[in-house]
Amino acid sequence: MLQGHGDDIYRYKDIRINFSSNIYSHADLSELETHLREVVGMLRNYPEPEPFSLEAVIASKHDIPADSILVTSGATEAIYLIAQTFSLQKASYTASILHPTFSEYEDACRMYGIPPLSAYDATAHSILWLCNPNNPTGTVFSPAEIRQYAQQFDYVIVDQSYEDYTLAPMLSPKDAATSRNILQLYSLTKTYAIPGLRIGYIIAPPSIIRLLRQYVRPWSVNVLAIEAGKWLMENNVHVLPDLNSYLTETERLRQRLNQIPGIKASETQTSFFLAQVTPHTAAELKDYLAKNHHILIRDASNFRGLTSHHFRISTQSPQENDQLVSAIEEFIQHPQDL
Q: Is the N end or the C end of the chain the one with fewer CB atoms within 10 Å?
């Protein structure tokens, strides 16, 4: 298992502003909390061995057949399940992964003996992994690009965990369900800002879902996660901010950071983006912000293809964003305080 993910708030004593997770941190979850208190007695019983009731709700919401859906304990479980499933087939697959991107694709492939390639290689028995929007860069592949890749590769896996954080067009659930070889990953964790409840799902042609289901562990999704997922989707709950305003604030923050000497913030199509600090390292900046300002950022140096100077930021409130800018300015101006 990989170490060094974002949101490692547990490593610090007093973090008050968290820029390190791409998930919106100001969601109002009070109604969900009330609902979960009402059903907490369900903890006394086992959940469904497979969460078919939640799959039925998802099918209704997307207007696709339930046999095109497989619910998992977060999108990360889906990643490892897919790698395991393809590793056990007769064909010897290779995996194309364009870096920098979410590290678990490569980790899962290595764990199950699928050779990961750091370039697009559509030779025989090839799988392409796409993060869309891409973590950590915030870039987006168009539906047309994905359909083109689907003609070139045996299978295309499209991780759309952050689709609710961009205005760019996305491949639809029906596109995946009716395709020949596209597997879409979704994350209720991100959509509803509930990272502590692991809920994700896969949408794919029924034949692929049946194959994946052979390797699913029983009771992998806990009862409160199932109930939360059903309640959130059945009630059409929306916890994320107005996306136009959120992305406008992201651009304002990015431009302010680019005015600081030694900081370069990259363009993005989402609410998170990559930045670089020089001549210092991202680890030094992260440590300074945590200890002196109770602010947490994501040291992105462990993404393949990035350097020790890269860090990732996820937009927060305007006031918190201004605090971050001021704190980084202080870091740049007073390196002797490191």
A: N
